[in-house]
Amino acid sequence: MAAPELILRFPGPTQVSVAYDGNDSGQFAFANPVTEKDRNDIRWYVETYGAQSLADPDDEEARRIQARLPEIGKALFNAVFADNRAAGRLFDRYQDADGEHRVLTIDTESAAILSLPWELLHDPTGVYLFRERPHISVRRRISGATGGRNPFVLKPKGQLHLLFVVSRPADAGFIDPRTDPRAVLDALETQAPGRVTWEFLRPATLNALHERLTDDTRPPVDILHFDGHGVFHQVSEKDAEQDPGRFGRSIGSEIQRERQARGDPQSDAPVGIGFLLFERDDGEGHLISAQDLGENLFRARVGLVVLSACQTAALDQEGDPMASVAGRLTATGIPAILAMTHSVLVATTTALFGNF
Asked: Based on CB atoms within 10 Å of each CB, which residue in 36, 92, 282, 326 is the most buried?
């Protein structure tokens, strides 16, 4: 039985409609309550405050932001549900729905909407929605991302196969290569003994991944777990020309696609693109965009891509929602992608993926 799903559809950054169980509120005005200061505060709280170990952390500022988080969540909730009676009634019905868990989907092509901290949604008379029982999961769906290509349908299997890609280029910052896999494998051993097999890709290069995915003599890959560095990088043709071995082969077309999306194809200014940092044959870093990665994963029918890497769902508010690694991968028809909107701490990924 499918989980109850409440859908917030945004045709643009200032309009929304709410749909549930075959009923729709109709379109109404949406005013974004999240300020640029709120965004910067959240980024500092998530990326900087928790990572400060040598310098004295600003605990007072952290407490101020922490107290502000539920207020941001309530403001987002009210912006959708408070002033439209039909939307409010649909939420009440959804909240009363039975099931082991529920899903709230943000459906839009607007990067400004996708980049909002929807995980903070907070019922003004209750709790954060993610703390509701049954569970409410928030997910983002980019309207029209697949260009007419439907995600392939997953069929239940008695056993799944997991491929770890643990990328540690010599010129990148150190991350313990044991942390993520240990958390995942410990959880599998506890929660699903004998139901998931696994292997590690060696070396962690794009060519090695292509060869593995096309090797019919080995088990098909159901889940790919990338453990490494991710960046949302401002890049131009000049950058690619100065260091051609640093980027994947599709970097030129990715830059042009992003410029087209911004309506400025003649510009030579850098544009924001998401990358995963694979290894090259010489052990140095190789910035791989989702265009270089996605088609191989779709043809191999990889059903879930887990990106344990910073900023893999990061977006420019004024840019293209398809510029992030996660957004671009959806265009290939991969059914599900788990990614990060910010830089994350190793301890965070350990807790997240162990539970997941």
From this structure: 326
Is residue 319 classed as helix, strand or coil in its secondary structure? Answer: coil
SS3 79: helix
- CA angle 74/356/109 to nearest 5° reads 50
What type of residue is 349?
A: T
pLDDT tens by residue, 258-316: 777 667 777 778 877 778 889 999 998 888 887 788 777 878 889 999 888 765 544 45
Q: Which of 62, 284, 84 is nearest to 169 (CA)?
A: 284
Helix axes 346-355, 179-191, angle to 10 degrees: 20
Determine the Cα–Cα distance for residues 316 and 175; give it in Å rounded to an integer: 26
| Extents of the domains making up the chain | 5-142, 160-355
CA 259/CA 126 separation, integer angstroms: 43
Bridge-partner residues for 272, per DSSP? 234
| Structure tokens belonging to residue 85 | 């009676």
- CA dist., res. 62 & res. 222, Å (int): 40
| Beta strands 160-166; 196-200: pairing state | parallel
Query: Hey, what are 191's tokens?
Result: 């929660």
Single-letter amino acid, residue 19: A
Beta-carbon count within 10 A of 131 CB:
11
In the block, tokens 């949406």 appear at 30
Q: Is the dihedral of CA 302, 304, 307, 313 positive or negative?
A: positive
Residue 116 near residue 75 (C-beta atoms within 8 A)? no
3-state secondary structure of 279: strand
Model confidence, pTM: 0.74
